[in-house]
Amino acid sequence: MPYSRISKKYLKPRWPFLKQDAKGTLHVDGVSIKTLAEKYGTPLYVLVESEIRNRVRRFKNAFPYQKFRPQYASKCNSNLEILRIMREEGMDIDASSVGEIILALLADFEPREITFTNLHKTDQDIMFAAKVGVQAITVDSTEELARVAKVAQKMRTRIRVFIRVNPLIQYGKYTSKHQQYGIANSSVKKAIRMAKEARYVDLIGLHFHGSYISDPKVYEVAAHKIIKHAVYCKSLGIRIRYIDLGGGFPYQYNDTEVFQPEEMGKRFVKKFEEMIKKADLHPPTLIFEPGKFMVANAGIGLVRVISKKKRPKKTMMIVDGSTYAFLPDAMIYKQYYEVLPATKMTTRRTKEYTIAGCTCDCIDILARNRWLPTLEAGDLLTFMDCGAYSTVMASNFNTLKRPAAVMVKENGTIKMIRRRDRYSEMFAPELDVLKVADPRELKKFYDLTRINIDKLWNGRKKTIGK
């Protein structure tokens, strides 16, 4: 199919997978947005396999360190198909819950390729992770370290741990001083001694959380402080085999400029190796935990305009997606998403719109004051750069079904990677305990929602015509 050039007003360099046809319809790696909407309905998440794989390879190649083992932060988007891609590309997994550990195992990761890191773990969680055999459990406090030691003692099993350190960094606009993550720098030595004294605890790594880092030098500052603790471990006869500097790698949205891994990788590795050599430490495995960088720009949210409403000094377009069930970041963090007129890409932008979601809540606003072509009911819009956190944070507010998701494969085929919710699944936690509905009653309602109205009405028209 012949494609025409997309205007620079719409196309950003971070979307190399976008093209448009002569009629102004957007295509994603050769697949028409109209085709996606017709086959899978809207709202719909669209993930681009080629972009995900490219970003993983870029990240891994950016750090020329011999013992480099990056972990994908699965909390960003834990879809099984994405996890499978991460495994195929040689990533390990940073899991934030038992559920994410299970997902990683279902995606065929080996237990030693999974690290369990979060703020709170029950005794049951700790036992599960130890029984499975994850690479390590990252302890976030001295209380949690004591809990791990107790569980290990009862299991008579050595449990490998990382200690998460809050180095209390203040560098430029970045600070970790107000974060809830990790053991304060001044208390880390106490935690190391606790680990040393615990019979069944094996301290093998030190961890820094990271989180929304805009200056790559923050990682150097964090590494310097972490290595000091590794030296103290060495003085106690503990060899630190892993240094994990967490995530926080930015992704690009709007027209903001952010640093790329290629811009920091060589410099960081050089500084890190110098620090390790100066500290006379055996070179540890270096871990980073990118999440947003891997998947955010590879995600597209597809919605359909359902109505236009004139208001004093503004025009509102109502779409069939919402902040709650589709793009929660727009409401929670006031995230800015670029909006493209997916079926009118060649039409001039002459109207300013506020785009509202479909729920009964006045704060359900997806985008404000966006210049777009004249829109009508039925037009398709895409919200760009929504591959991170959208699906995992979406809710069933208003008892709406969370959307389906598809992956546009590198070979141009389409693969459904998540179907739309079903009412039976949404209601199950209440129906299972309250027993207020007959299963046959629910099936009757469910079957009614599954009727294909277009086919039904088309059939009637044919009958009337006869």
Structure description:
It is built from 15 helices and 24 strands. By secondary structure, the protein is an alpha/beta fold. The chain folds into three domains: 169 residues, Lyase, Ornithine Decarboxylase, Chain A, domain 1; 224 residues, Alanine racemase (TIM Barrel, Alpha-Beta Barrel), CATH 3.20.20.10; 43 residues, no CATH class. The strands form four sheets. Strands 5, 17, 18, 19, 20, 21, 22, 23 and 24 form a nine-stranded mixed sheet that branches. Strands 6, 7, 8, 9, 10, 13, 14, 15 and 16 form a nine-stranded parallel sheet that branches. A four-stranded antiparallel sheet has the order 1-2-3-4. The longest helix is centred in the middle third of the chain and has 19 residues. It is globular.
SSE blueprint and pairings:
Layout: E1 3-4, E2 18-21, E3 26-28, E4 31-32, H1 33-40, E5 44-48, H2 49-62, E6 71-73, H3 80-88, E7 92-95, H4 98-106, E8 114-117, H5 123-132, E9 136-139, H6 142-155, E10 159-166, E11 170-171, E12 174-175, E13 183-184, H7 188-197, E14 201-207, H8 217-235, E15 242-244, H9 261-278, E16 285-287, H10 292-295, E17 299-311, E18 314-319, H11 329-332, E19 339-340, E20 351-356, E21 365-372, E22 380-384, H12 390-393, E23 404-408, E24 414-418, H13 423-434, H14 439-449, H15 453-465
Parallel strand pairs: 5-23, 6-7, 7-8, 8-9, 9-10, 10-13, 10-14, 14-15, 15-16, 18-20
Antiparallel strand pairs: 1-2, 2-3, 3-4, 5-17, 11-12, 17-18, 17-22, 19-22, 20-21, 23-24
Helix pairs in contact: 2-9, 5-6, 6-7, 8-9
